[in-house]
Amino acid sequence: MHSIGSRVDSLLEPMIASSHPAVAVLPMKSSPPTTNSAGSVGQWRLLPGAVLTALLLCACASVPNQEMSDARQAVFSARGADASAYAPRSMESAEQLLDDAEQSLKQGRYDAARDDALEARQAAMKARQVAVAIAEARAAVEDAKARGGAWASAEGLVTEAQAAGRQGDESRAWELALEAKRLLE
Questions:
Q1: CA 1 to CA 173: how far, in whole Å?
Q2: Taking 60 as the threshold, does the pLDDT of residue 1 lie above it?
Q3: What 3-state DSSP class applies to 37?
Q4: Over the stretch 116-131, which tens digit does the pLDDT of each residue have?
């Protein structure tokens, strides 16, 4: 029995002596549990589960640094693609959600901050996708004009795409922009 207790001590000691501030450092018994104290053996069996539960709780309540960073980068990228002009509703939503996430973060409401940051990232990515599609279609029309190719119907589709994006119908805007590009290929 002594060898099992020593093995448990050696396995659990790094987890219990963690430097993470939310994990309590529990004193380790210097002697292994004995067979005549059935209660202490049962407690030792529960210890790995308790440590794992504590670690999971700490992970759930952690600061959503990565999610916030991803959301900020997505909003920045959408701004760079001029998404405010082509998909203003999604862009406004992304910026508002990012602001909400920042406020939740300041208040220590990490779960709310994480949720808002994830939604902000999605909205910004959608806005950027529409903006890029319309910009590429517009560039293809300009290129076709310069080469003397047929461009009038594609330009009409790009104009419709821009109008759909401004009205908040980003899916339709994206489809129209792709159709305009296909016409010019």
A1: 71
A2: no
A3: coil
A4: 999 999 999 999 999 9
Joined tokens for residue 32: 């292994």
Q: How many CB atoms lie within 10 A of CB 9?
A: 16
Return the percent helix, strand and coil in the chain, to nearest 5. 80, 0, 20
| 168-179 burial: b if 16+ Cβ within 10 Å, else e | ebbebbbbbbbb
Domain segments of the chain: what residues?
2-60, 65-184
pTM above 0.90, yes or no: no
Residue linked to tokens 């069996």: 45
Each residue's pLDDT tens digit, 25-74: 444 444 444 445 455 555 556 656 656 565 555 555 699 999 999 999 99
Separation CA 45–CA 22 (nearest Å): 22
Coil/strand/helix, residue 109:
coil
| Cβ-count burial 62-94 (b if 16+ within 10 Å, e if not) | eebeebbebbbebbebbbebbbeebbbbbbebb
Any idea which residue has 């920045």 for tokens?
Answer: 76
What CA–CA distance (Å, rounded) separates 7 from 5? 5
Chain-centre distance of CA 94, in angstroms? 13
* Residue at token pair 């309540």: 61
The encoded tokens of residue 151 equal: 């461009």
Look-up of token digits 């308790």: 50
Greatest Cα pair distance, the chain, in angstroms, is: 95
